[in-house]
Amino acid sequence: MRQYSAFAVAREALRYHRGWERAWGNPVPRTHYDTLIIGGGGHGLATAYYLAKNHGITDVGVLEKGWLGGGNTGRNTTIIRSNYLQPPSAAIYELSRGLYEELSQQLNFNIMFSPRGVLMLAQTEHEHRAWMRTAHANRLAGIESELVGPERIRELCPIINIEGPRYPVLGGLWQARGGSARHDAVAWGYARAAADLGVDIVQKCEVTAIDRREGRVAGVRTTRGTITCNRLCIVVAGHSGVLAEMAGFRLPIESVALQALVSEPIKPCLDIVVMANTVHGYMSQSDKGEMVIGGGADGFNNYTQRGSFQHVEETVRALVETFPIISRLKMLRQWGGIVDMTGDRSPIISRTPVENLFVNCGWGTGGFKAIPGSGWATASLIANGADDVAGPFSLDRFAVGRMIDESVAAAVAH
Ligand SMILES: Cc1cc2nc3c(=O)[nH]c(=O)nc-3n(C[C@H](O)[C@H](O)[C@H](O)COP(=O)(O)OP(=O)(O)OC[C@H]3O[C@@H](n4cnc5c(N)ncnc54)[C@H](O)[C@@H]3O)c2cc1C
């Protein structure tokens, strides 16, 4: 595939942009692949890319029922950070954050990574102590994050109401190298690079059944025919339970709607990401000037991609008290995604009771930041049968009680 570059933009400008190639093909699915991946979101596409790039496995098909990134990957609020509490989480999220830093160059696709810094406010004594503990844990894990006081917060974010009508801002956990990236571009960049290495990316191809023979997956039935495979990996976020049921086992996953909204665009006034967990809301400003706002997940299981009205109200109320200057902004759009929640709020990257079937799910409200690291680790697990980073996230932790408790890190949707 021809390189994207400033020179290429100039060349195409001179010939009316008639020379651009398709970013990825539109193949008719073959009847057999060595490795099949169900789900064309960020995690599925990154897994396909690293299978080809790191392990030379290119006989791979990615089956997506809709369009690439049409699930949570294209619906999230794009916060990237790695300041998690537990060592296994710190390892995978920091691997991911590090990969994000060079992803545009690696994929030759501008994913618009913006390391603008992420600030998590502490608005109760309890929260302050929790962030202090996380800051210490991060230092031990070699992750840059620091506990900051109200004065520093005032400098970082002049529009915050430090005194607050309900909860004063006592401090915060600041990760200067966290930030955001363009979500669609992450999916498109991985898709283009994977396709360039020989991976088939098949859109509008829904998996409707999984065929098993003698304890192994033989293949899948899809809306575009039956496809056999040697290995299968399910990477479908909120639909993980549905796909696992097709394969004959259950996952400890609950699916709920999580929602976000954006305001009309305004002049630049917020150049970091701020999360206010106690009042429950978070906000950043997009390059276009819109305030990108995220709130909590629904308190009941559902498969709707809309979310409930009460969360919009709660989130807006929380953010108006944290940032009073937004009180007269008009909201432009609201949407929801179906997220896959585990009991310990950590993901599952694992083998399954079916011998040649792998699963990657349980990223809940925070898997966008993990896409590169998760794809890297999942590809290694599929190729080698084991992986150090993926290891702790195996399914058996729920049977033996080896939880990776990140419920504090996931206190607010992120
Ligand atoms: C509103 C919202 C805000 C969020 N904010 C953040 C954030 O700020 N930071 C962060 O790190 N994370 C955030 N997240 C979480 C993040 O978006 C997800 O964890 C991540 O995108 C999951 O990626 P994925 O590739 O696993 O799933 P998805 O992107 O959902 O991809 C799964 C794909 O599987 C496909 N699929 C499903 N069933 C089938 C089938 N039967 N056959 C074929 N294909 C199928 C779907 O169509 C979908 O495209 C947020 C999520 C939401 C909803």
TrEMBL record:
What's its top-level EC category?
oxidoreductase
Q: What InterPro entries does its record include?
A: FAD-dep_OxRdtase, FAD/NAD-bd_sf, Rhodanese-like_dom, SoxB
Q: What broad class describes the main subcellular location of this protein?
A: cytoplasm
Subcellular location per UniProt equals: Cytoplasm
Q: Which reaction does it catalyse?
A: sarcosine + O2 + H2O = formaldehyde + glycine + H2O2; sarcosine + (6S)-5,6,7,8-tetrahydrofolate + O2 = (6R)-5,10-methylene-5,6,7,8-tetrahydrofolate + glycine + H2O2
Q: Gene3D superfamilies from the entry?
A: D-Amino Acid Oxidase, subunit A, domain 2 (3.30.9.10), FAD/NAD(P)-binding domain (3.50.50.60)
Q: What is its EC number?
A: 1.5.3.24
Keywords from the named record: Cytoplasm, FAD, Flavoprotein, FMN, Nucleotide-binding, Oxidoreductase
Q: Which Pfam families match?
A: DAO
Q: Which cofactor does it need?
A: FMN; FAD
- Annotated ranges, domain Rhodanese: 37-79
The text of the family note is: Belongs to the SoxB family.
- Annotated protein name in UniProt: Sarcosine oxidase subunit beta
Q: Which organism is it from?
A: Paralimibaculum aggregatum
